[in-house]
Amino acid sequence: MIPFGVAGLGPVLSFPGDVTPPDLAAAGVRFVLDAQRTHRHLLYDTVDLRLARWGCCLRRGADDAFVVLVPGAGPVEVPGEGGGPVPAEAELLVRSFARKAPLQVVASTRTTVRPLTVIDPGGRPVAELARLEVAVDRGGGPSLRLQEVELGAGADPGLAELIAELVGSHPQPGVPLWRRVLGPAALQPPEVVAAEVDAGSGVAEVVGAGLAASVVRLVRNVPIAVVGAEPEGVHQARVALRRLRSDLATFSDLFEPGWANALRDRAGAASSVLGRVRDLDVLSGRLERRREQVSFPARLDRVRDVLADRHRRARRELLEYLGGDAYLDLVESLVTEVTDPPVRDAGPEAALAMVRERHRALRKTVAGLSEPPGDVELHDVRIRAKRLRYAAELLIPLSGDRVRQLAAAA
User: Is there a contact between 181 and 136 (Cβ–Cβ < 8 Å)?
Assistant: First the structure.
């Protein structure tokens, strides 16, 4: 088991207290006592624990290596340099969460692990039951004593329930050790939260919640895009910006004059940089899916090489943008301004009129198509339909089936 749940076999279940290992002999399970281990770490965050509140962990081990736990992307290890500052690669991964606040050491820990490996009847290690003693220095605060169970890949889910029953304590889910180490402040929500809305909410609340949801989606997916292990991070970050910009345009009459357009313009640059990577991801995926259908694989390989080269350049441009001041200013503005947007309240009918305007624009575009329509014309229809869908989906809490059917049709 690697402490703090940063990496390991599988899900971690934490139990409080110093509990005697359960007797699983009746289930044909035995324990193997492993050697005691000690781990020392420094935890980095902003002074107001922005990383922890977003679910991100940045720690430095005794070997000077940094490990970043990026929500949705798993652990990423970045080499450190002889006690120097946080490496640029690690800082880039947490930039969306920290924004302009400096990173600093917020806690140092010494974790003593006394592990017992759980062996199933077939001789496979299926879980690790470990007593952890964590000495924490965060400018005061008690040490922690607890035990954790980490299930192995493919382990019977019933094993956790059995261990919990025999231990006499049920697991404490959803709170990793490193967040508990940092104290109650680390368990507070992040700066932007998409509020729950329903039929009783006002238009300002619904529109504000929609903008906040897009900002949350962006902030959570940009670090996944930086990791680059799979294309979904880029896709979701681009969708977040596209939806944000569309909603700002559709409901612009609800905002203070000029505010929505200024924010849209700043978000446009980020959307374009992400879009260049996303377009190449899509093209490359289509190429691979059709590989077996072509009779000239050598030419296909040349096309694939060209796309791969363009993709490398597009990703380099994306990382340069995300590491620059323009992105930092954008995400700072989005987080601070969307938490309290300058939106006036209006009746549901006024908001629905704005959606109907999107609908009329789409119908007019369709009516003016050539026969047969060209690719550029069809792409314009697709964009307008998507904008209509975004606007209609946003108002579903207020109007229910009236706009739900429209969104589905779009």
Answer: yes
Tokens of 112: 């003593």
13's enclosing H/E stretch is strand 12-16
For 66, the 3-state DSSP assignment is strand
Rounded distance between C-alpha atoms, residue 367 and residue 382, angstroms: 14
> Peptide bond preceding 75: is omega within 30 degrees of 0, i.e. cis?
no
Q: What are the phi and psi torsion angles at 67 (to 5°)?
A: -125, 125
120: three-class secondary structure by DSSP: coil
Tell me how far apart the alpha carbons of residues 81 and 89 are, in angstroms, rounded to a whole number.
Answer: 12
pLDDT in tens, the chain (410 residues): 333 333 333 344 444 444 455 555 556 667 676 777 888 889 999 999 999 999 999 999 878 899 999 988 888 999 988 778 899 999 999 999 999 999 999 988 887 777 667 777 778 776 666 666 677 776 655 556 655 555 555 555 566 666 656 555 555 555 777 888 888 899 999 999 999 998 888 999 999 999 999 999 999 999 999 998 889 999 999 999 999 999 999 999 999 888 999 999 999 999 999 999 999 999 998 888 887 777 777 788 888 899 999 999 999 999 999 999 999 999 999 999 988 889 888 888 999 999 999 999 999 999 999 999 999 999 999 999 999 999 999 999 988 788 999 999 99
Let me know: does 93 contact 223? Beta carbons within 8 Å: yes
Would you state the structure tokens that stand for residue 209, as one six-digit string?
Answer: 């919640």
At residue 58, φ and ψ (nearest 5 deg) are -125, 115
Q: Which string of DSSP letters, residue by residue, matches 238-287?
A: HHHHHHHHHHHHHTGGGBPTTHHHHHHHHHHHHHHHHHHHHHHHHHHHHH
Q: Which residues are bridge partners to 41 per DSSP?
A: 61, 109
Supply the DSSP string of 143-176, one letter for each residue.
Answer: -EEEEEEEEPTT--THHHHHHHHHHT----TT--
Nearest to 222 by CA among 168, 300, 274, 266: 274
Distance CA 287, CA 153 (A): 34
Beta bridge partners of 112: 38, 133
pTM value? Answer: 0.83
d(CA 83, CA 91): 15
Q: Which two tokens stand for residue 152?
A: 């192995």
Closest CA to 30 of 153, 158, 127: 127
DSSP letter at 25 equals G
